[in-house]
Structure formats: C-alpha cells, structure tokens
Amino acid sequence: MIHSSKKRALMVIGVAALLLCGCRHVTRVKMAATIHAGNKAYVGSSVQEYSCRKSTHIMNDLDECRIRGEAVVVDVPGDGPVFLIFNYPGAHSHTAMVQEVLNRVSGGIPFDVTNKDLPESWPLSTDQMPMMVRFDNIKDPTSVQQVDPNHLQATFGRDVSDIRVMVEKTSAPVTFGRMERIIPWISNRGNPFHPGYSVAIPFTGTFIDDMSPYDFVWNDKK
Questions:
Q1: What is the CA radius of gyration of the chain?
Q2: What are 80's strand-pairing partners?
Q3: pLDDT digits 0-9 by tens, 84-100
Q4: Under DSSP, is residue 31 helix (H, G, I), strand (E, B) or coil?
Q5: Residue 30: helix, strand or coil by DSSP?
Q6: Cα 9 from chain centre
Q7: Using an 8 Å Cβ cutoff, are 89 and 102 in contact?
Q8: Residue 201 pLDDT
Q9: Calpha distance 119→51 (Å, rounded)
Q10: Cα distance between residue 47 and residue 28, in whole Å
C-alpha cells in the first residue's frame, strides 16, 4: 500500500512531467449565436478547438495556445449572413490575437493549460463576443462592415432587437468547410480583403486593414 505522502509526491511528479513534456490540453467548444428579429430567432453555431501547453521557453512563461475552427455565421433573412469572427482590434500579432480570443471565449474565466475552472456552458456578454461583421455584397470581401452588437438596429433596422451568445463544451467534430460554401473567395490565394497583398499585411489601425482570411477560418496545426 502506497503511503499518502508518496501518493502526493507521485501526483506532483506526474503533473510536472505533463507540463515539461509539452503535451497539449485540448478544449473543444460549441459557440452558438441567436439573433432575434421580429418574433423569430435565427441561430448559427460553430465548433472550435483550443489547445494549450506550457511554454518550454525559459524566458517566456506564457501558455502556447492554438485555435482550430471557423467563425460562427447566422443567416438573417433579408440582411444576409452575419459572422462572428476571430478578430479583435488592438491584437497586432498572432500570439496576442490567440490570447485575446481565448480570454473572450472563456467569458472572463482564466483560460490556461488545464481549463479546470471552465464550466460546462456559459454566456458571453456583448463586450466578450467575437467581432461581428457582414457584407454589403457577399461576393465582394472589400464591402465588409463591422456590426455593433449593442446597436443592431443601426445595421439591420428596428426589427432586429438583440443577439445572445452561448458557449458550451463539446466533443463534436470541429467545424470546417462551411465558410468556403458561403464565401468561396475566402480560399483564394493571398488576402481577398487587400488584392495584391499577401495574407499578412502591416497593421495600420483601420478596420479593414486588420481583416484577413484567418478571421473566418483558423487552422493552427497541432
């Protein structure tokens, strides 16, 4: 029979080994958005995966996290698709964007390697929701417009009242392939928001200059 102190020592060694080995802890969630228009509710959802591990760099103790999945899309009749994308103003690097996505998606709960404090499901406030966008012309990526979740009527008219977003843990497959059906140009070579540029362009602080295909489809390799 193993003594309790030895059990504790083995547990500590096991946790340390897990962190030092660079193993990734995967959290998969389903994000569902509901937009209320008139007396109807329009719902869209996407399964997204977030995997993290402790940094192995001596000078950097930040978790190394990756994202896989697609933006949430809600089809509002008469107004076209509305997208909740992987984009937050001010995050001017891949690492900063990933961290900001995780901080928002977790609803303010610390998102770390184990995610032990995350509940089974939780709502997102409008301040925590992903950026919302729509297109004046769905075939023209440069017609993208940002949508304010606190003032939906300014974009859609008085019939659209509010939006609610729920996140829940899931084991369902990660969502892929939907964006290419809705906006086929998303898979074009280069950056469709900036013809002539590569996928990554210098940040200038303006809304459309921050846009890229990664905002709609993110597939960090494991």
A1: 20
A2: 76
A3: 998 876 665 666 677 77
A4: strand
A5: strand
A6: 38
A7: no
A8: 47
A9: 17
A10: 7
Query: Which are the contacts of 165, defined by CB distance < 8 A and separation ≥ 6?
Result: 31, 32, 33, 34, 72, 84, 123, 124, 129
Q: How far is residue 221 from each of residues 50, 66, 93, measured CA to CA in Å?
A: 11, 8, 17
* Closest CA relative to residue 182, chosen from 67, 83, 42: 83
In total, the chain counts a number of residues equal to: 222
- Between CA 193 and CA 69, with CA 74 as vertex, the angle to 5 degrees is 65
Strand partners, 144: 135
What lies within 8 Å, CB to CB, of 11 at 6+ separation is none
Cα angle at 30 between 172 and 70, to 5 degrees?
90
pLDDT tens string, the chain, 222 residues long: the values are 445 555 554 444 444 444 444 566 788 899 999 999 888 999 999 999 988 776 665 444 446 778 899 999 999 888 889 999 988 766 656 666 777 777 777 776 666 555 667 788 889 999 888 889 999 999 988 888 889 999 988 888 778 889 999 999 999 999 999 999 999 988 876 777 766 654 444 454 567 777 788 889 988 765
pTM beyond 0.85:
no
- For residue 59, what pLDDT is reported? 47
- The residues near 52 (Cβ < 8 Å, ≥ 6 apart) are 24, 25, 27, 63, 64, 65, 66, 102, 111, 112, 113, 115
Identity at 34, one-letter amino acid code: T
HSE at residue 129, side-chain half, CA atoms within 13 A, is 21
